[in-house]
């Protein structure tokens, strides 16, 4: 009998609680302490000021299961979804943290104890990386843990050296990988095939050791600290004896629900994985207060929703389907995140309205794209076509790129950006962007598209909250 994802989450927190760590709830996907960050993308984010010494807490050890979104900004895994076995736009990062308490040696011991004793992973399937000159980490892995030298891989790239910014806390990392077996394509970290899914990174241990000055010198931090992150879905896959994150209990539930609301025939269709992934990021983003819009966080949300709608459509969905998955998500994750159930109605409404708006233009846009592709020579979709789809049919450029990729094509990003720049300039010159732009769209006889400016959308949102 395999452990469920929920049980694994609990077991991790219990283990670190037994090592005197304070169990801290996940913080919001909208970082409260960092305006430069698009979304919370790691467990350490809510502790940033503690690491910097600017905030003090009544504990020096903490553990959490942090909800994360990596769909924009520095970490963007949107394009990986549906293609790799290990990436989501939304995932949970299990972590343990030391604020000037224990350092490398204990961080390594704790991680190894959890993996090999608590959840009993076979040692021979594990290998680790260290930063190339981190002799301390090498000693701990080889002497304390007893790993043979060929299982400790030295990496000299930034993959194994973490920094908070250009200056400030930084230090070497040590990552733990699991070998899913020869039958899967891929090579060990540092090899040319490392991007395959045979050796999957499960846990990153970050040792905050130095304070980088603006002239580049690295002074030892007065309080050396530890930040770790392990993907819950990745460890769940291993413990449930499957290769892909999408095969774990939680995702099987979501995929079954996605198949039923879209009338999908082939359970292995990559679009099902995309839809199952996207309902998590969209529902949690809305639950944390993000609303679809034309800029910033809201535009990332809108892009993810539209991608999901396109994939659902491809699977055979008739009419709006995406909002119907909120119930299935609550079934899978409602216990760990009670706020989801509390906000079910709002989340469903926001998704449904967004879907309906886009649904009106999706088919027409796809038809235009199809028609243009049949006449296209070469394998690059021209920037002006990408722009037209964006401007008239509400296709975010990444959605067009997603369609393109399925046909081994790419889009002309630069050409698209140039069209965008021209539009921005014209709008500035017109001086009254909103009104003119919308009138023009509304009078376009080929479409009943109402425009996507934020005034129109916020009016809709106000309606939602009114009833
Ligand atoms: P990868 O190299 O596989 O993209 P990463 O090095 O970008 O992972 P980290 O930033 O080190 O990941 O994050 C810590 C851990 O969080 C990873 O070891 C992994 O288990 C998990 N993780 C990272 N990104 C994702 C994702 N998009 N989906 C699911 N889990 C993830
Ligand atoms: Mg990554
Ligand atoms: Mg990595
Ligand atoms: Mg990593």
Automatic annotation (TrEMBL):
<keyword id="KW-0963">Cytoplasm</keyword>
<keyword id="KW-0862">Zinc</keyword>
<protein>
    <recommendedName>
        <fullName>Alanine--tRNA ligase</fullName>
        <ecNumber>6.1.1.7</ecNumber>
    </recommendedName>
</protein>
<keyword id="KW-0067">ATP-binding</keyword>
<keyword id="KW-0547">Nucleotide-binding</keyword>
<keyword id="KW-0175">Coiled coil</keyword>
<keyword id="KW-0648">Protein biosynthesis</keyword>
<feature type="domain" description="Alanyl-transfer RNA synthetases family profile">
    <location>
        <begin position="3"/>
        <end position="467"/>
    </location>
</feature>
<keyword id="KW-0479">Metal-binding</keyword>
<comment type="function">
    <text>Catalyzes the attachment of alanine to tRNA(Ala) in a two-step reaction: alanine is first activated by ATP to form Ala-AMP and then transferred to the acceptor end of tRNA(Ala). Also edits incorrectly charged Ser-tRNA(Ala) and Gly-tRNA(Ala) via its editing domain.</text>
</comment>
<keyword id="KW-0694">RNA-binding</keyword>
<keyword id="KW-0030">Aminoacyl-tRNA synthetase</keyword>
<comment type="similarity">
    <text>Belongs to the class-II aminoacyl-tRNA synthetase family.</text>
</comment>
<keyword id="KW-0820">tRNA-binding</keyword>
<keyword id="KW-0436">Ligase</keyword>
């Amino acid at each position: 009998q395999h452990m469920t994802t929920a049980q694994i989450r609990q077991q991790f927190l219990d283990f670190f609680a037994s090592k005197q760590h304070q169990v801290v709830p996940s913080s919001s996907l909208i970082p409260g302490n960092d305006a430069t960050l698009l979304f919370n993308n790691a467990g350490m984010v809510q502790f940033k000021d503690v690491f910097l010494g600017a905030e003090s807490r009544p504990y020096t050890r903490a553990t959490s299961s942090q909800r994360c979104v990596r769909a924009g900004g520095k970490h963007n895994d949107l394009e990986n979804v549906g293609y790799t076995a290990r990436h989501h736009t939304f995932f949970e990062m299990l972590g343990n943290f030391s604020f000037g308490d224990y350092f490398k040696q204990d961080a390594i011991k704790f991680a190894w104890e959890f993996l090999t004793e608590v959840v009993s992973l076979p040692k021979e399937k594990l290998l680790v990386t260290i930063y190339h000159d981190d002799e301390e980490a090498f000693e701990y892995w080889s002497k304390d843990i007893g790993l043979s030298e060929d299982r400790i891989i030295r990496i000299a790239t930034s993959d194994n050296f973490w920094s908070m910014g250009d200056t400030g806390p930084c230090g070497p990392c040590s990552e733990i990988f699991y070998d899913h077996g020869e039958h899967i394509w891929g090579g060990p970290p540092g090899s040319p095939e490392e991007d395959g899914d045979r050796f999957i990174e499960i846990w990153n241990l970050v040792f905050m050791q130095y304070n980088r000055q603006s002239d580049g010198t690295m002074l030892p931090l007065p309080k050396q600290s530890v930040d770790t992150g392990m993907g819950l879905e990745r460890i769940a896959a291993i413990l449930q004896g499957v290769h892909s994150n999408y095969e774990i209990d939680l995702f099987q539930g979501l995929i079954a629900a996605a198949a039923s609301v879209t009338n999908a025939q082939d359970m292995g269709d990559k679009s099902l994985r995309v839809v199952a992934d996207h309902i998590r990021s969209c529902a949690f983003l809305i639950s944390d207060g993000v609303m679809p819009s034309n800029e910033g966080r809201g535009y990332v949300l809108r892009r993810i929703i539209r991608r999901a709608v396109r994939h659902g459509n491809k699977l055979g969905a008739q009419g709006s389907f995406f909002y119907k998955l909120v119930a299935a998500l609550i079934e899978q994750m409602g216990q760990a995140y009670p706020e989801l159930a509390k906000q079910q109605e709002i989340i469903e409404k926001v998704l449904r309205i967004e879907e309906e708006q886009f649904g009106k233009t999706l088919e027409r846009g796809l038809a235009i794209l199809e028609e243009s592709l049949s006449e296209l020579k070469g394998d690059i979709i021209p920037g002006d076509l990408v722009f037209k789809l964006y401007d008239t049919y509400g296709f975010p450029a990444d959605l067009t790129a997603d369609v393109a990729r399925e046909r081994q094509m790419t889009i002309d990003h630069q050409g698209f950006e140039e069209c965008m720049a021209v539009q921005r300039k014209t709008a500035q010159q017109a001086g009254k962007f909103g009104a003119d732009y919308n009138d023009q769209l509304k009078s376009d006889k080929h479409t009943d598209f109402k425009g996507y400016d934020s005034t129109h959308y916020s009016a809709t949102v106000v309606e939602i909250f009114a009833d």
